[in-house]
Amino acid sequence: MKVALDLEGVLANSIDYFLDQYNASRGTSYVKSDIDSWNWVPTVVGFDTFDSIVNHGWRNHSSKIQYSVENLPANLPPLIASTDLHVDIVTARTGVEESMKQWVTTAGIPYDRFVSIDTQPKPTLQYDVFIDDNPVLSQHLSSDQTQYLVSQPWNENTACDGEQVRRVPSVLSAFEQFSTWAE
Ligand SMILES: [Mg+2]
């Protein structure tokens, strides 16, 4: 079974880094829970502004990008290592791959390949399972693909059927549930 493990919003809390930078420069006071839909970024701040701040963060301040889950380096690597899954890190961010790889390595997260794609939907890649916070990814799944939707404020209203799209509170829960999924 091949797993596509998303980076931002699943492993890396890059949104809080973005908000810190954005608020400091614009005098705003947005918090993560304000981002209540996938359209918040393009509608409120614009994709270009978002991408440029986050890319700058990866390139120059990656140590300021926190983990999405407390104690991620202690808890996730043993869970991944306990499976025999093929796990690739698959991100839709391009241009800062070396910094992102270094961040993942520093966290001690084992993976097979690091894959960055630009505009093509992730489900066009040959993976069985996607661990991803993207609420529109499921629109592109083929019938034999499954998404573990990692809960975030921007996907809290996304419908999940509990079969093809399964909501999990964190990436840790996703890996804990793989044994059940495989039965
Ligand atoms: Mg993501």
From TrEMBL:
<keyword id="KW-0614">Plasmid</keyword>
<keyword id="KW-0378">Hydrolase</keyword>
<protein>
    <submittedName>
        <fullName>HAD superfamily hydrolase</fullName>
    </submittedName>
</protein>
<dbReference type="GO" id="GO:0016787">
    <property type="term" value="F:hydrolase activity"/>
</dbReference>
<dbReference type="InterPro" id="IPR023214">
    <property type="entry name" value="HAD_sf"/>
</dbReference>
